[in-house]
Amino acid sequence: MNFDVTEEEIKSAKHPHELFLINLITNHILVFVGLLGMAGSYPAIMLVTPAVSVSIILYLLYRAKRSLTLDSWFVACHWQVCARRSKLFIIMLLIMALAMLLLLLASGGDLRPQHYALGGAAILPTMLTVLVLIVMESDAVHQARTGRLPGWVVERFPDGAAKALEHRTGKRKDRQSQPNWAAGGGGSEPR
């Protein structure tokens, strides 16, 4: 659905997606690969990627919660989209960490070539998730730029849907909005 939003709202709605993309592309791909070359001499340097990632994800989740009372409806909805995808990424990272821990425990700390192969298989779903999230977040940036939202967000936070525009005709839909769309009341009114 398209929404009647201002340029300032569009700019603000793109922020969470751009930050999450920076985490996925720059931190988890480029920085991680760059640090792999130094890991032999300085193994602790590999902690940079998870430290930066955790910081960014915690900020995204914190800011998404605050956006329900600080931002306009459209911007808050985009923060919620990003928070939901951040939670999915956290779950995938935890599953990967658990698989690595189980592999380390099963090997007794003495990793052999077959353990590295199983470790690679455990990392594969997380790598695929990163690639899918990059595509989804790139699309979310485009949706924010064009004033659109996924349908599940409009259903979960329906108040701003009164400002929805017909996708093809450009005419406003006749939908009633509910007051106090943000949890706990308050919040900014949709524009």
Give an overview in words:
By secondary structure, the chain is an all-alpha fold. It is 66% helix and 2% strand. The chain has 5 helices and 2 strands. It has helices at 7-36, 48-70, 73-107, 113-145, 151-156; strands spanning 2-3, 164-165. A two-stranded antiparallel sheet has the order 1-2. Helix 3 (73-107) runs antiparallel to helix 4 (113-145). The longest helix is centred in the middle third of the chain and has 35 residues, at 73-107. It is elongated. Residues 166-181 and 183-191 have low confidence and may be disordered.
Identify low-pLDDT runs: 166-181, 183-191
What is the element string, with H for helices and E for strands?
EHHHHHE
Helical fraction: 55-70%
Query: Roughly how many Å apart are the termini?
Result: 16 Å
Number of helices: 5
Overall strand count: 2
Please identify the structural class as seen in this structure.
mainly alpha
Biggest sheet character? 2 strands, antiparallel
User: Order of strands across the widest beta sheet?
Assistant: 1-2
Rg measurement, Å: 20 Å
Mean pLDDT comes to 84
Query: What fraction strand?
Result: under 5%
**What overall form do the CA principal axes indicate?**
elongated
